[in-house]
Design brief:
Chain A: It comes from Endobacterium cereale. Chain A: It is found in: Cell membrane. The complex is a heterodimer. By secondary structure, chain A is mainly α. Helix content of chain A is 74%, strand content 0%. In chain A, helix 4 packs across helix 8 (150-161), helix 4 packs across helix 11 (191-207) and helix 5 crosses helix 8. Chain B has a domain at 72-247: MetI-like (MetI-like fold), CATH 1.10.3720. The N and C termini of chain B lie far apart (57 Å). Classes of the chains: A mainly alpha, B mainly alpha.
């Protein structure tokens, strides 16, 4: 490698991390702000360097908001959504991929088409439906419209299609049916894809804003993304508290991401079809 | 006879496997979709019955100033986000792809992290960053433009600012897609080109760009669809203001349905939004595929 190339490489690496520093700055700044007293936050002398470690804003948030209920609602609904979407999607994909039944092609066509439908366009009539069923302001009301994630079926079908036929025969000879095949052969062979799809579905459900915002009417039933907007209304402009609630709301998924970084990266790539 | 019962049994098993999805789909997706179409031809309130009004809602849309503004703003927002975010993501992916090992993991984590934040966390942070009086970015704005700007209260600044926040938030997803695409390009291509003395620019133009085109097309399509559906950031940052300068279609659906109690009219707008998105995604996909074949 020539010395010019080496120099270029050094400059590019430094440039990359300078850009990264700019990119992460908003989160850094939110953290610094959340650790200051409200007076310090708006004082002229406060610079961009950390200078205070004052947990007052965090304590205030934990005491004076419904943050804990929002956590419970978010975790509860997101876990149920993820589990249901994965299991129902896997079963449906298995039938489409491995079995012959009338309407199979039409069903897959519908799945592919619904992939294109913006679910946001349906919120009005989904709201009417949930209202008719008396499910507004309940977990069921938050969960039901989020259970359709066609991409899960599409990805599972691709992976099930690729499982060698010989794997089936041993089980079939032993008298195993399709349920045995699915849960004893196809699922264990595709654990990787299952965790990947699970992670993606969970993040999507956790971050969902529009639907829970419409489906919930009281503060104690709110999920994290909807709940933290209430803090704004309750406190007015108190930025240390606003930043601490924002960071508390972001924390569970952020920590999970930092732990499972590789898995999340893979999950995004697989579910968008750029890596199979 | 045994064959027939076997066949029947397989049918029953298949039905039980698809049932959970199909029933949920029929209830919360298909039925609301059909009802949306029906409702768009009526003057019903959000809850309760209305009368059939034919195409009235749609003709009314054509002369509704707010709808035309929203349509225009949706277009403007797509213009402000789709190509910029694709370009920025490609640059970042190229920069990250050069790095190795833990440095690469670190850079990737930093650029991806905003994507997993809930939208309201993102809007709260940026509201604070850009606060007119105390925002940490106001001195930067003052440096370049001579004075501080209340960005969310200024009709000229509001859409570009929301676009910037959106790019910061969602860009990491595109970066990942590009990195996956870059990893799929065989190393030999680069080695062969380097042996022939190709420069960095030539490598990019002759090897990377053409081989990456399918991913670029995918990113452009996904972004186009995503950005047409904008609601969350606008609602949380501006509520469509100032003077409707950031009003978008989905915000109008929300207002008509949930604030003004016009279920029928809101459905008509939602239906138009749906058709626009479907048409654009089919059209764009075809165009990009044609571009890729050349």
């Amino acid at each position: 490698m020539t010395s010019l190339r080496k120099f270029e490489n050094g400059v590019l690496t430094i440039g990359t991390f300078a850009a990264a520093a700019l990119w992460i700055f908003p989160l850094y700044w939110a953290f610094i702000t959340s650790m200051r007293s409200e007076d310090r936050v708006v004082s002229k002398e406060a610079g961009v360097l950390p200078d205070e470690f004052n947990p007052a804003a965090y304590i205030d948030i934990l005491w004076n908001t419904n943050l804990v209920s929002w956590y419970i609602n978010s975790i509860g609904t997101a876990v149920i959504i993820t589990f249901t979407v994965i299991v129902s999607g896997m079963m449906c994909a298995y039938a489409i991929s491995q079995m012959r039944f009338p309407g199979r092609r039409i069903l897959y066509g519908v799945v592919l088409a619904s992939f294109m439908v913006p679910s946001q366009a349906l919120v009005v009539t989904q709201f009417i439906l949930m209202n008719d069923m008396g499910l507004i302001n309940t977990w069921a009301g938050i969960i039901l419209p989020q259970l359709i994630v066609p991409v899960v079926i599409i990805v599972y079908k691709q992976f099930f299609d690729a499982v060698p036929k010989e794997m089936r025969e041993a089980v079939v000879l032993d008298g195993g049916g399709d349920y045995t095949l699915l849960f004893k052969v196809y699922l264990p062979l595709n654990w990787g894809i299952t965790t990947a799809l699970g992670i993606i579905t969970f993040i999507m459900a956790w971050n969902q804003f529009l639907w829970p915002f419409l489906a919930v009417t009281t503060e104690d039933k709110m999920t994290i993304p909807v709940g933290i907007t209430q803090v704004n209304d309750a406190f007015g402009v108190f930025y240390a508290r606003l930043m601490s609630v924002a960071l508390l709301g972001a924390m569970p998924v952020a920590i999970a991401y930092l732990i499972f970084q590789k898995k999340v990266t893979e999950a995004v790539m697989i579910s968008s079809g750029v890596k199979g | 006879m045994a064959m027939l019962t076997n066949r029947r049994k397989e049918m029953a098993v298949a039905a039980s496997l698809v049932a959970p999805f199909v029933l949920t789909f029929a209830l919360v997706f298909l039925y609301p979709a059909i009802r949306l179409v029906v409702l768009s031809f009526t003057n019903s309130p959000l809850i309760g019955a209305g009368e059939w009004v034919g195409f009235d809602n749609f003709t009314r849309l054509l002369s509704d100033k707010l709808f035309l503004t929203s349509l225009k703003n949706n277009g403007y927002f797509v213009f402000l986000t789709v190509i910029p975010t694709t370009a920025i993501a490609l640059c970042i992916a190229l920069m990250i792809n050069r790095l190795r090992g833990s440095l690469q993991a670190l850079a990737l984590a930093i650029f991806f992290l905003p994507y997993i934040l809930p939208v309201s966390v993102v809007t709260q942070i940026w509201t604070w960053m850009l606060d007119f009086q105390f925002g940490v970015l106001q001195p930067v704005i003052a440096f370049f433009f001579g004075k501080s700007v209340a960005v969310f209260k200024n009709p000229y600044w509001v859409m570009p600012t929301v676009a910037m926040v959106t790019i910061w938030w969602t860009n990491g997803f595109n970066v990942l897609l590009f990195i996956a695409g870059l990893r799929n390009i065989p190393k030999d291509y680069y080695e062969a080109a380097q042996l022939d003395g190709a420069t960095r620019t030539q490598l990019f133009r002759r090897v990377t760009w053409p081989l990456l085109w399918p991913v670029t097309a995918l990113v452009l399509t996904l972004q186009m669809i995503l950005q047409l559906k904008i609601f969350d950031q606008i609602y949380l940052l501006t509520k469509g203001g100032p003077f409707n300068s950031s009003y978008v279609m989905l915000l109008m659906v929300y207002r008509e349905a949930f604030q003004l109690n016009h279920g029928g009219y809101a459905s008509a707008i939602a239906l138009v939004l749906f058709i626009v998105i479907a048409a654009f995604s089919v059209l764009q996909y075809q165009l990009l595929r044609a571009g890729g074949r050349r």
